[in-house]
């Protein structure tokens, strides 16, 4: 692997500490996603943007190969540039493609990451080309909202949730959901909403997230003619947070 000077590249993001985020220094969110990629995986990172996740994992020697898929031209070119500048073209293939269409059977993909998109978008990507996964790949999902419909899709398509976590970064609460095909599982409406494993673990980050959500939804209820769903969610969250 060849390291090439990066001094001409503008940092595009920073975390709360003002740290530059790039293919070496991932956001905490992407670090937590990276920790869920099995060692030696052949990873497809769909919606890869700058390709930071697969490049960081490859630089660290943690994965065997990767595909970085992007539907939009500017991030596709950015991912190509990151891979080229790191001399990783032999190990990471960057493809301009919609969702899982980036994956070819010969890639032998064993893990798929879909991060930083809405849960419904991730669900629709999975639904459109699910057969490309052959049911074997681990899914590492980091939806920005829309977790409930995403979990419902997983349940209805034979996936079992193996790991979930909540983390807070840059004033956003993020969830990570890891799933693999397994024995059919039936999650309740509450489990689909809060996360079956998150509900059990009741971590501090999880409880804080739902305290904030409760305040927000209560404000909505107080000031607007909110849909019945909001009142139901307020009830669910209040019950969840009861000591
Ligand atoms: N995955 C990176 C992360 O978590 O930091 C980038 C997240 S960025 C907010 C979302 C990226 O997904 C964008 O670059 C967008 O172009 C890409 N994207 C959205 N829909 C897509 C699709 N159907 N197929 C491939 N990429 C998609």
Radius of gyration of CA atoms, rounded to a whole number: 19 Å
Indicate the overall shape.
Answer: globular
User: Which CATH class of the largest domain is shown?
Assistant: Alpha Beta
Instruction: Please identify, by name, the CATH architecture of the largest domain.
Output: 3-Layer(aba) Sandwich
Q: CATH topology of the largest domain, which one?
A: Rossmann fold
Q: Going across the major beta sheet, what is the strand order? A: 3-2-1-4-5-7-6
Strand tally: 7
The residue ranges in which pLDDT falls below 50 over 5 or more consecutive positions are 1-12
Characterize the main sheet: 7 strands, mixed
Overall pLDDT score: 91
Q: Counting H and I runs of at least 4 residues, what is the number of helices?
A: 9
Number of domains: 2
Strand content: 15-25%
- For the record, what is the CATH homologous superfamily label of the largest domain? Vaccinia Virus protein VP39
Going by helix content, strand content and strand pairing, the class is alpha/beta
Q: What is the terminal separation in angstroms?
A: 53 Å
Q: What are the distinct ligands in this entry?
A: S-adenosylmethionine
- Helical fraction: 25-40%
Order of helices and strands: HEHEHEEHEHEEHHHH
Description of the structure:
The chain has 243 residues and is an alpha/beta fold. The chain folds into two domains: 2-187, Vaccinia Virus protein VP39 (Rossmann fold, 3-Layer(aba) Sandwich), CATH 3.40.50.150; 202-243. It is 39% helix and 22% strand. It contains nine helices and seven strands, in the order αβαβαββαβαββαααα. The protein has a seven-stranded mixed sheet with strand order 3-2-1-4-5-7-6, with helices on both faces. Helix 4 (119-128) packs parallel to helix 5 (147-156) and helix 8 runs antiparallel to helix 9 (228-241). The chain is globular and about 55 Å long. The model is unreliable at 1-12 (pLDDT under 50). S-adenosylmethionine binds at residues 30, 46-49, 69-72, 75, 98-99, 115-117, 121, 125.
